[in-house]
């Protein structure tokens, strides 16, 4: 899978994207929680409209999540998380989280490569064992045939 180079280039592209995001300047957006208060400067075309939009999203998200937690309905909570917060991206993460993601991607690539190598080695060992089993079965058949020949010859005398 990854041995063809396509998977490696995909992982490298993601890592380069994360690293290039780290080099961008960041600004504080008032009214946003501490977790999401870092935004890239080039992304904000109209800062006032963006702040109002994001503030209303955060308020709506916190109200909706509190009502879901009170109801204890995990299915609704999962659906909200899938459909309600679609604006999250790598650019919204802090540098530490981006580094963690980059490290996880590198680890995934390494583990995937190890898995591929292990699968190939296992397949080669399995083929070698199958050849050995066929060889032993052939030897066993020869031994049985020789024994029958010896018994047949001894019964003639």
UniProtKB/TrEMBL annotation:
Superkingdom per UniProt: Eukaryota
Keywords: Coiled coil
Coiled-coil zones: 94-146
Protein name: KIAA1328
Pfam families: KIAA1328
